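call fold(seq) -> tokens
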Amino acid sequence: MKSIKRKAACILALAMLLCLAGCKEKKTNRPNMDALKAAEVGSYIYFGEYEQDNNESTGKEAIEWLVLDKQEDRMLVVSRYGLDCQPYNTELKEVTWETCSLHDWLNSEFFKEAFNSEEKDAILLSTVTDDANQAYDTADRVFLLSTWEAEIYFADNAARACSGTPYCYAQGASKKEGTGTCMWWLRSSSSFSLSATGVSYVGSIAAYGIGISYDCDYFSVRPAMWIDLEP
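ret:
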């Protein structure tokens, strides 16, 4: 009997060690700087972690990013998937990118939640503008792509179309039946009052005159940022 109990205890201990090893392995999906430097435009990298499978008991998952631009000492990335669902602004009132609630959420709550201290240090403070309001610019760690950036960095609508994570859809993001794609925000204001631009299920860009109401609560968020390759 003692032998059986001892064997059972050993099996349980081994299972716990394997579980811990698996959890540890999941947390090491963050690349070192050499891996980031080796990434090419059009490839994907892992950087930071965020809840994605909508199962908080398993911990956060590594965030996958699409490399849009690469320069000698930095590169621009956007999340491969819609990571969350947020309105451009929680109230329907006149705002700019600088003053909207989504700007605050990305640079406070999301920034703190998704990145460790080393990763935060590698995210550059970038000056971004609102295409429709060039008089306004902000210094952001994390931002949304502008309409212009969404046009030049993607070859066509198909390249712009994306899906949301299970967590993103659980937060209220709209999901297209059949394709599983979502709609996602851009930071540029629309020429139509109280609205911003965005990307449709099929990847087309909502023009300045066909904006999305600031308080729309079913658009997903694809964060973007510049990563310092020489921190």
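Residues 4-27 have pLDDT under 50 and may be disordered.
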